[in-house]
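Our working data are protein records whose layout never changes between entries. The record below serves as our worked example for the rest of this section:
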Amino acid sequence: MLFHKFLYRFQCTHGMLFVTLPSGRRLAYVKPKLGENQFGGTSVTYEGVGVNKRWERIESYGPKFVENIVQATARDLLAHAMQNLKHKEIVMHIHDEIVIEAPIKLSVEEVCKRMSQAPTWAKGLLLNADGYECEFYQKE
């Protein structure tokens, strides 16, 4: 069984905290600082657009960074799947879904097979896709 160890690199440079994803894409956090949170523990803060849609200092914590990294990696996997289907008519995508308009001769199985191909940076990652066919867009 193949096992791929994902490597994530954290680097602080030029007033930015960068997280390099396995795909090579980077997440950026502006002007990170260590500080004390509302509970007296240590937290990381950075500048960004807050809930009031204004630029402000945002407090974060470990699980939130993990969520950002996992969602960004999932996005990179979806982008790779879309590249595997680039000759097909992708109409839209919603989170982890791709909607395509395809000729009748293209099977759902073929689309799922193409979407399940792991990129080189995720070699050994077991991917699977599921799909269905319908005349108009609907949630299954």
About this structure: Residues 35 and 41 are 8 Å apart (CA to CA). Residues 62-84 form the longest helix (23 residues). The chain has a mean pLDDT of 88.
